[in-house]
Write a structure and sequence with these properties.
209 residues; alpha/beta; Rossmann fold; 2 domains; 8-stranded mixed sheet; two-stranded parallel ribbon; 10 strands; signal; ABC-type uncharacterized transport system auxiliary component (Precursor); ABC_trans_aux
Amino acid sequence: MKHFLSGFRRRIAVGALLCSVAALSACGMTKTKQTFDLTSISVVPSSETGIIPRARKRLQILLPAPEALKALDGQDIVVESSAGSISYLKGAQWGDRLPNLVQAQLIRALEDSGRVSGVGRPGQGLAIDYQLITDIRTFGIEPHGRMTNAHVQIAAKLMNDRNGNVRAAEVFSAQVPVNGGGNTNYARALDAAFAQVRGQIVNWTLLSH
């Protein structure tokens, strides 16, 4: 009986070892996705909108994470077909959840503008004048006739934090053609489209309060 149990235990141990080796092999075969970020570009108020008064530098803005539908509320890069169905760019992802990236870039752009005294996230304890509330409506690759475009559309509301009144609301959109194939070109076009939208939002925010 002892010999039987000893042999049985050896077989169990060998089986467990083989399973571990197989699991490690499977992990080694998993391909790492290309990871992309949104680049940071300083935004200077447009000359077309005039000079923003120095007094507005006292402004403090709260910027919550943008709202987004489930398809846009993750790290996957969205690709839309001509039929309207949604898929994701194979082998590619954002470096963080898309709403987090958009929030971080908007905060940085407002700070870099030099026209506000403070920009923060919820919970940072700032004495807030306005909230910049955003909604990511579109952020992906889509067909446009014979071309393929990167399309970014973000809705924004500027709300007085003291009385809850919406001071202004606007929808910002940009489309940039994708030059060539490959994940890098898709991500680069999306980054360029977002840079345009980000600049529009920052200029609008500084002139709307």
